[in-house]
Design brief:
By secondary structure, the protein is mainly beta. The protein has one domain. It is built from 1 helix and 5 strands, in the order E-E-E-E-H-E. Strands 2-1-5-4-3 form a 5-stranded mixed beta sheet, with no helix packed on it. It is elongated and about 40 Å long. The protein starts with 6 loop residues before the first strand and ends with a strand.
């Protein structure tokens, strides 16, 4: 299940960019690899909160972080 505020952070050379998964039409958990701006990125961290745990939490946002994949 994907909640409205599930998000991901993409670390770029110009700084971090944050997106909700729904804005990118992705579901939770986000993929291990994803392309942004024509570049391959890999997920390096991801919240481990389950859907069941998250549904009762109003003060928590699940997130994942991506960095540029090494060539």
């Amino acid at each position: 299940m994907t909640f409205d505020d599930d998000m991901l952070r993409v670390s770029t050379p110009k700084g971090n960019r944050d997106f909700t998964l729904k804005a990118l039409r992705l579901s939770w958990p986000p993929p291990l690899q994803q392309t942004f701006w024509g570049q391959p990125y890999k997920r390096i961290s991801c919240s481990e909160i389950t859907d069941e745990q998250r549904k009762d939490m109003t003060h928590v946002v699940r997130g994942a972080r991506y960095i540029l994949k090494e060539k």
